[in-house]
Amino acid sequence: MAQAAAVAKPPAPPRRRRASATPRRLPYLLIGPAALLMLGFIAYPVISVFYYSLQEYNPTKPWRNGFAGFDNFVKIFTEDPVFRDTLVFSAKWVFVEVGLQLLFGLALALIVNQTFVGRGVGRALVFSPWAVSGVLTSAIWVLLYNSQTGVTRYLADMGIGTYGTSWLSDTSTVFSAAVVADLWRGVPFFAILILADLQSVSKDLYEAAEVDGASRLKQFWHITLPHLKDAIILSTLLRAVWEFNNVDLLYTLTGGGPAGETTTLPLYIANTSVDAHDFGYASALTTVAFVILLFCSIVYLRLSKFGGENK
Fold first, then answer.
1. Which residues pair with 56 in a beta bridge?
2. CB contact set of 226 (below 8 Å; sequence gap of 6+)
3. Structural contact between residues 178 and 253, judged by C-beta atoms closer than 8 angstroms
């Protein structure tokens, strides 16, 4: 009886375990609840503002509440002179504040970037106003501008000015007084960001420039400023948005006065909603302000070529 040669079969390859999708999804599952909460806190107010901007909504006059369509927006651009005045003042406030804060912040950053005795203490003193809250900053400057116990009292004692002078109630000085108060807190913001970027500039570039005979001014213009371009663009954009939305300092210092001289658009919105209880019209004003900020931000980033290569 012929026997067939038995052929040994190779062992079957081990089955590959299917990679579980759970480890890959785990990070998203962990951050999911926090992301949903943040989305809710951000999305709901934004959607509510857009919704109420199309409504006539005043809790003190419920019989007038209802759908208004675009009537609120028509009123803003055709019947409301206060809107135009506050928008012009807001642009003036942002331009002056951001420009001066950038100038002084850049100067302070260049100073504290140098090596000198007590540099750590100097940096702490420069940055300390940024740690103070906006309300506390306003309270400090209200005391400083007080006509009975503030700066004007001591100036009058030295024969400068007269007693009882209030810079915050005079239309010729209120803007400058408010600007100085906000500069005290805003300048450290630019100094911090610019100093952080200055730390990354290679010292070899300055040494090479000195060997080539470049002056300090040329080194600043051709080395420092190009390196700081993106930091300056980002910081000015962020600060411009914050200054446009500045309410706490101006509200505490002047309340928008005297005679509406320091009323910004956000402060006008706050007065319209809180004092007049006209939440529908205030929501329409907020929507217009949002569109203005969005448009200006996009144009600014495009014109400044943020993130582009320095030539």
1. 66
2. 310
3. yes
Q: Which two tokens stand for residue 14?
A: 């081990």
E strands in the chain: 55-56, 66-67
Q: Which residues contact 1 (CB under 8 A, 6 or more apart)?
A: none
The Cα 300–Cα 292 span in angstroms is: 12
- Split at pLDDT 50, 70, 90, the class of 2 is very low
CA–CA gap between residue 277 and residue 45 (Å, rounded):
17
The backbone torsions φ and ψ at residue 207, rounded to the nearest 5 degrees and listed phi first, read -65, -40
Q: What is the pTM of this model?
A: 0.83
Angstrom CA distances, 257 to 179, 261, 263, 272, stand at 14, 5, 7, 15
Residue 83: which residues within 8 A CB-CB, separation 6 or more?
76, 77, 265, 268, 285, 288
d(CA 79, CA 74): 8
Q: Which two tokens stand for residue 282?
A: 């205030």
